[in-house]
Write the structure tokens for this entry.
Amino acid sequence: MFALLLIVQFTAFSGGEEKIPVSCAQSNAPRDQAHNMVFQSADNGKTWRDVSAGLPEDLPVAYMHTAGDMVFAGSRDAGLYSSNAPETGVWQREEIGAGFLNGPLTGIFPGRKGPYATFAGEDPDNLLVQGGLYRKIPETGKWKSMHSTLKAKTVETVLEMPDGALLVGCNNGIFKSADDGKTWKHVYTEGRVLSLATMENVLLASVRGAGVLRSTDSGKTWNWALNDGGAANKVNVVEGHFALFGMTRRVRQSADNGQTWKPMDSEGLPLSGVVYELGQVGKYLFCCHNAGIYRSADGGKNWELVRRAPDAWETGHQLSGQGTMLQMRVSGRKIYAGNVAGGC
């Protein structure tokens, strides 16, 4: 005699107005289609839908990105795919430069003329590769090279300013272009810049192993806003404030445009692990941790688990993650979770 035991765990979120399933079905796709790669939630993390159908069945997803309403998923060896409506099962393969000869993809970033793709010039096989920056031309579907005069081996991040100027964070600082990438000016020359964010005419840049830079003159000059040895490595804007996270479970935010920083309360997050991603959908904040995706309804004071990482395990009532983990991205009112190898 066989019995099927179905365990569904629920966690009540602050205020008790709804229950969230911690463990969700891994796939609702037919077995002869791609499944269990990319998931979508359109109801603030309450339910998750497998939107992997249309991707190659054997695609080893190594990264997932969003830019506007576009979702990108892929790996270095098996290619990059995109969709603006993955729930329909329609994905298309992207061809950027000479395939992936330009090194590992480091990110996809939004732009008014089309999304930007950034590449690292560091190759695990020690091949001679050059990092790059490309922008997709929506009218043709092709990607335009924008790095011919950019003197950087690795491009980590892109920020398109309201006036159309471009800022890129690289392995050797920050470059700025006022002519759509034709020429670049080296506006900061030290450190590896991992992320850029802007709000109210203030620019912030996170520097690996150092801290956070601040500029109030559109990136012409930079000063340290936080020089703490780089306890966090990514800066973002949530709830009208700058937020700093990564390399730690703590999230810090600034209420004065990056001049001073205070930690958010983080009740509900595991005591160990790292917050890799932070985003906002309506009144909720979402973060990606080793153990899974958490959400907060009170500005980051309290967190609840809404999607457990595939290989998360419990120890001492705390969740940890190993092996296959989640990568979280936010696109408008939707949250995407990708099952990837190695982390968020």
Q: What stands out?
A: Confidence is low (pLDDT under 50) at residues 1-18, 21-31. The two ends are 41 Å apart (CA to CA). Residues 206 and 248 are 14 Å apart (CA to CA). Residues 95-190 form one domain.
